[in-house]
Design a protein that fits this description.
This protein is of the alpha/beta class and 336 residues long. It has two domains: 169 residues, Thiolase/Chalcone synthase (Peroxisomal Thiolase, Chain A, domain 1); 156 residues, Thiolase/Chalcone synthase (Peroxisomal Thiolase, Chain A, domain 1, 3-Layer(aba) Sandwich). Helices cover 31% and strands 24% of the residues. The chain has a five-stranded mixed beta sheet, with helices on both faces. A four-stranded mixed beta sheet has the order 8-13-12-11, with helices on both faces. A two-stranded antiparallel ribbon has the order 2-3. Helix 2 crosses helix 3 and helix 6 packs parallel to helix 7. It is globular.
Amino acid sequence: MTQGRGRFAAVAATGSALPERVVPNSFFESLVETSDEWIVDRTGIRERRFAGDGETTSTLSTEAARRALDAAGMTPEQLDLIVVATVTPDRLLPSVGVMVQDALEVTCPAFDINAACAGFSYGTSVARAMIESGGADNVLLIGAETLSRRLNMKDRSTCVLFGDGAGSALFVPSAEPGVMATNIAADGRVAKLLTIPTGGTAEPDPDEPAIDKIVMQSGKDVYKRAVVGMTDACRSLIEKSGVAAEDVRWLIPHQANARIMKTVADRLGFGTDRVISDVERIGNTSAASIPIALDEAWRAGLVRPGELVLMTSFGAGLAWGASLIRWTAPAFEAAA
């Protein structure tokens, strides 16, 4: 690992993995008072993926990791660090990061980040800092969730929102800025607005299944804070980076729901032709939502070399953040 002037972090490739099981909105009609029309109107979601037998946060993470490495033409042995952003680990310990490390048969350091839906923004800041400081050369960042296993299927305000999946990005050193700027923030004073109350040392899981073991949120409050947090984070990055908003080709907001995404885009002055969204097909995959959307856009030929990509997220904590990246990975046709 080397350090010196002009050392920056850039994205070399991305990857993603989705469970096989597709869950349409009609699945929920027998569980709660809802309909496809109601869900689409309020969230923009038509279907999502739920993990099945043998599919876990770590297996999806490993698959997404391999796809990024393959696209970059790199081997697992070239990795210096693995970071996994997740709130749904396979177990409380060990981390998903070391499970991925074991699956890839490497020995580099590995750990998890818990910043909920903002996890990929937090992880990008970590990857950038490690590379720019010379602490690592090749950093694999993964966002992965299996939230379907933490949902109350009788609460229509949450059960229809979330899906499972994993996305990854491989960060490498660059002589030119790839990750141009990042910022992260949190406000623990309002943490109770989005939480899973039990399962930790303060409130261990009871012997019998309990309602407190699942995701609970105050939807209206989270909505308002998400819009403000993501908008302000993006504006701050644009100003700090010295670029104009119109110079940014793509906005990839956290795929929470279509209404939040549209409001953030409108406030930033981004039309639909500059926003990448897959929420209709995948739903809210928390820390995985940005890297999955980014990977799909790159592989579809939408994200091209030299373009500026602005990514922002918001989640439990409450935590939020954003990153501005100049895309340096080759067009996918050349990388595949």
